[in-house]
Amino acid sequence: MLRCSKLDTFLACASSAAPTDVPHNPQSEAATEGRTSHEALRNVPACTEPDFEDIAARSGVDADELRRIVAQGKRIWGEVRQWFPNPETEVRFDGEHLCGTSDLVSVVHDDFAAETTDLSILDWKSGWSQREHPSQLTGYAECARRRHGMPTSGFILGVEAWVRHGSYRIHRFTAEILDGFVARLAEQSKLIGRQYGPGDHCLFCAHVHHCVAREEYVRSTCNALALIPAQGITRDRIGALYERSKALNAALRQYDKLLDAELDNGPLALPDGRQIVRREQEVTEIDALKAWPVLLTGVHPLTGDQLSDVVSVSKTAVEAAVKSQAVKGKGASYVRETLAELREAGALGTRVRHVKAIVTPGDADEDQTNKAA
Fold this sequence. Notes:
Elements: E1 2-3, H1 7-12, H2 29-41, H3 52-59, H4 63-80, E2 87-94, E3 98-110, E4 115-125, H5 134-148, E5 156-162, E6 167-173, H6 175-189, H7 212-226, H8 235-240, H9 242-263, E7 268-269, E8 275-276, H10 288-297, H11 304-310, H12 315-324, H13 331-344, E9 369-371
Parallel strand pairs: 1-3, 4-5
Antiparallel strand pairs: 2-3, 3-4, 5-6, 6-9, 7-8
């Protein structure tokens, strides 16, 4: 049986659904935040307030961060609730081929005609990435169709909501779309054990630590990136290596964390007899409080523009520092008040920066992605 939450990985790599005696079930900070966020968001449709402190204490997450996520969830809910007149949370589906738990389902029946007139599903996403998971949502739609039948509206409405960004995307699943999806799953199931498609989705696969295709994927990525010349590489080749480089960078960051943790226990041996050791290195630092008078009125004072160039204040660091001195339960209000003061003083502004994003051509022209007010 296929889990809806694994369908995007399954459609990228059929063999991810193969049985395994040594499954990989990673426990990460992001996974913990996701579970606790969903627990808190469960209260949104019922217009009840979750016990943030209790949820945070049980899971070891930040209560104020949970409050921000739920606040964004409420804003999104205010815009999409029109499609969910009968909201039911945490709906479990156990079908013949698909299973999973949908965050929110609404079913409207015409009891006289014994028909389903409207059917809607919603999936909360609490991560920082706005990458879509269309197959997961489509899987929930198919499960809902199996249970309730195809609504007379002609489609099942799906909402994928990214609460950290306050945005959501609307999908309309017709019978034709769902029939095609079911056929695609059936064809992909024939390839289990025969077809492998390693990529960044491998991190969510039960086979990630013992998959030969994954090992070859990482090895070829290392070779390709190491051999890139300063000139002569084509644009297509640069684009083709992008997602691979992201996966490799993530693996390297994780390796550095493991390396630092092991060095706490002493030197690590290299195969040739050398060792990796941790050494102290003296670094010159400037005390910000003591430096201000010198930089402003010293022998060679800096101009305002020069100060802006050499001094950087992180909004994230300021929020963390303010929150650390707040009394219990007041962290979010302390941060709001501080930011309001900074804004009034003209110290809080915005700038445009360029970020890399993966999009599907044509998406920018579709009026389906919305930003909650």
